[in-house]
Write a structure and sequence with these properties.
mainly alpha; Rossmann fold; 4-stranded parallel beta sheet; 67% helix; 6% strand
Length: 309
Amino acid sequence: MKALVLAGGYPQIALINELKSRGITVLLADYYASPVAKPYADAFYQVSTLDIEAITDLAREKQVDFLITACTDQALLTVAKVSQTLGLPCYIDYKTALNVTNKSYMKEVFRENGISTAKHLSSSILLFIGGVASIYTCLVAKDKSVVKLNNIAKMFGDSIKTIAPAISVCVFGYMIGSLFSDLSVAEEMGHIILDWNFGKLGTVTAVCAITCFMGMVIPGSSLVVIFGPMFITVLAGVGCDPLVVAAMLPCICGVMCGITPPLGLGMYAGMTLAESDFSKTFKNNLWWVAAQFILEVVVLMGWLPILGL
């Protein structure tokens, strides 16, 4: 029996070993020339796991009995689609694979089956909270004489001048995050990091450096959603505790986003509240960035015990 495994990261090593222990010949396909799982397979082919047509041709040419992958959602789509096209057995059909890997399709399934799920929450809730907060402020104001339309309009006008730059940076960051998600950048980045073969300390340092850099332009919430699963897989593959990595995601993604310029929304918010000088705040902020970076590495390496993990 012959199997075609898609993607050659650390999770696929365990899969390949399991297949070979059952007497199955394993062919491996990956976008990169030297993925870490390559030495474990019986044969390797440099083909992108996202190229459905190329994977179909490879599976047909090599007359494989089935396709399989592990811990990679986009490759799962390819496995399901190619298996369906070639009439090969598969544990999941393409429609189901699409539903469980694409949030839009997943929410549609939830709605069709009466399962509660959020509907465009982020865009509506922000407006709702701001509106309620504004109304509440007007109601509790001690000096009601200042609660006039012209005063409120002037206040909003002055505030917009202050917050517009930060909001523009934030919106730009979410646009970049959406682009990264649409292009499946996370999976490709995961392959690149694994191909570096840095070892545990090197990989931990690299991931922290990457999140620090991306935090300059992408909001932390986007980083967690887009790259979180990949970071957990990569770091777990080099020996980090996956629970610790998952718990640290808001820290390595969200906190760095808040303090790393130029996005640094937390820094800008602090400057506004404290009415501090930009140059001095920026320099002091860099110390926090450095301290945060070092602490991330220490915790992820397991050098600092975490209660309960």
